[in-house]
Amino acid sequence: TDKAERSNALNVAIDSMCKKTRDLRRQLRKAIIDHISDSFLDTTVPLLVLIEAAKNGREKEIKEYAAIFREHTSRLVEVANLACSLSTNEDGMKIVQMAANHIETLCPQVINAALALAARPKSQVVKNNMEMYRSTWENHIRVLTEAVDDITSIDDFLAVSESHILEDVNRCIVALREQDAEGLERAAGAIRGRAARLAHVVAGEMDSYEPGAYTEGVMVHVQHLTRAVIPEFISQVNIALESLSKNTAHLFDDNQFVDISKKVYDTIHNIRCSVMMIRTPEELEDVSDVEDEQDARSRTSVQTEGRTDRAKMTQLPEAEKEKIAEQVADFKKVKSKLDAEIEIWDDTSNDIIVLAKRMCVIMMEMTDFTRGRGPLKHTADVINAAKMISESGSRMDVLARLIAEQCPDQSCKQDLLAYLEQIKLYSHQLKICSQVKAEIQNLGGELIMSAV
């Protein structure tokens, strides 16, 4: 018995170590992809600023801009090496390292060319020399960027990019509502840059496939982003900035701006979903490690032992898995919209926001159960989770009706009450369903009614 206890303790320790190692691996992957996403977002600005100062003969500013350019180069080289640490593609890693060495060697030469131009800004020979170095630098940066893209998982890149764009969209909306023109312009610029980078990466990925329904489906979303959504977004940003500059923000209807901002995120999400349509369940499982959705979990799971119903979900027929995957994808899309909305509110003093977040986390656990993962282990846990959502929904109905009663706008009041009727209906359905299902026990693979 003592030996069995020691063996059990060892197994627990091994499981714990495996979990911690997996968590560390996930954090490292996300951190590196974050670096890649940010560092290669706009690789030419430091060089263009340096050249512009040199053309105008601003010798005093050159040293400052040269230091920024040197730091920018070092960061690109560092991130390229980090990308290599994630990859198993030896040939690709060699190309990345070679390209990184080239820009590292080229950096001081570019700075010297800029210093020469600053000293003699009217010399055509010096101008031509600077132009040659600019062109050479941009070519090497293009090679490095493509080489890094080749050894980086596009699934990880898309997961991180989608997350960043959601953050940027939230920042845009908050900046507009706070009338922060500088913050709005900065966040909008980040969205524009990330969208262009994502479109370029996805288009490059599709070039590696034979043309067909899959590539056409992906490119439809990419072209919709670049040709329709982003131009419309930029137009709305310009209108908003003009309104802020003229102090007429109170006359500006921000609903259109919010709609197009969300459309940007939705289109990015659609691109990611279309790219991942051909992935296997194992590949989808691996990608989910990079996402943040698993960081916060509730305590809805009842502690149980033995073979779990959750594990059985992984043994479902492929047709069932595909159907579940579609429903999970739809839920995640709705969840992302909810995240974007509640991000702008302070949940420390808002009971409704706290309840909404709580219900969303429980629903995420239920969707995880359908994929054979997450904290819910047995059908009883899912039933308990449904009961908790029902109770939270009833509580939200009570709180929101208090707000509706005080609403002076009859149109808004009626809209809110209509939504509350839906919440009330769904909460009641969940309550009845959980009560009925709780009467059923899974015994030896056969379902029996406990009342019988």
UniProtKB/TrEMBL annotation:
Its main location: other. Pfam families: Vinculin. It is found in: Cell junction; Cytoplasm. Residues 285-294 have a biased composition (Acidic residues). InterPro entries: Alpha-catenin/vinculin-like_sf, Alpha_catenin, Vinculin/catenin. Residues 285-310 are annotated as: Disordered. One of its GO terms (biological process) is cell-cell adhesion. SUPFAM superfamilies: alpha-catenin/vinculin-like. Transmembrane segments: none annotated. GO terms for molecular function: actin filament binding; beta-catenin binding; cadherin binding. Keywords: Cell adhesion, Cell junction, Cytoplasm. Belongs to the vinculin/alpha-catenin family. This is CTNA3 protein.
